[in-house]
Amino acid sequence: MSDKVIITCAVTGSIHTPTMSPHLPVTPDQIAEEALAAAEAGAAIVHLHARDPETGRPTPSPEVFMQFLPRIKQGCDAVINISTGGSHVMSLEERLAAAVRAEPEMTSLNMGSMNFNFAPVADRYADWTHEWERDYLRASSNAIFRNTFDDIEQIIRTLGDGFGTRFEFECYDVGHLYNLAHFLDRGLVRPPLFVQTIFGILGGIGADVDHLVHMRRTADKLFGDGYAWSVFAAGRHQMEFCTHGMLMGANVRVGLEDSLYIRRGELATSNAAQVRKIRRIVEEAGRSVATPAEAREMLGLKG
Ligand code: KMH
Ligand code: ZN
């Protein structure tokens, strides 16, 4: 097991909405500031989505991305990772547009189609700041987060072959690991694979430590020493799962995309606060936090 732990910070995402937390960054300035502070706190990778500056609604607009990406690039050395998951209502073309414009070192790549239901979260809120929020969240219960084999191949060919982009392979269930192995067998992706295992999304594998062990063992069988393992869990399981995973040798992902909280019942006031917390846990456990340069080396990024 490497002594080094890569911390990814997923800064805003497309699930949480402005009513849920005043600390969720939505404008380009806020996203840039939050990403820079997360990098300063120890995140080697920042995973980014964009939002409409007026309403906070997730947007695929490359113009909006370009209002914060250059600032982050100038202000820190962290690896920029642009989402190709976008949101459940975006087309594949929309989901690819920002990465095609920015040609980043890394993007996410979701490894299978799935239900992706965050409507139950919506039911916890009575009053909404913006009209779009409730309907957007409710629509997820009847939507398919589409990532067919052809879609995945198109993303690999467009970004991987096109720009040398490498991927955060998002695996929400055991089958997604086998899908990734299929692309490895076909020679469309190559080691070291950055395998992000995700727990506790309604539609994916649950946040149960047995599953963490099983995902790890399955990835070991399929990828041997050709992968770097990372863990995140949604909502209240975030810190606990990152801690379990880190003790088992994983890298970790935190950020307000994945959880709005710093501990039970207390909103995180920033992404950096979550990075600092997991960093303390990592260091107390005797491991150390990877710098962006070390992360690039570990993941074979173009730099
Ligand atoms: N919001 C996460 C559950 C992506 O951006 O590609 C999944 C995610 C998807 O990060
Ligand atoms: Zn994301």
Automatic annotation (TrEMBL):
Membrane-spanning ranges: none
InterPro entries (UniProt xref): Aldolase_TIM, BKACE
Record flagged with keyword Cytoplasm: no
Pfam families in UniProt: BKACE
Domain of life: Bacteria
Keywords: Metal-binding, Transferase, Zinc
One Gene Ontology molecular-function label: metal ion binding
Cofactor: Zn(2+)
Protein name (Swiss-Prot/TrEMBL): 3-keto-5-aminohexanoate cleavage protein
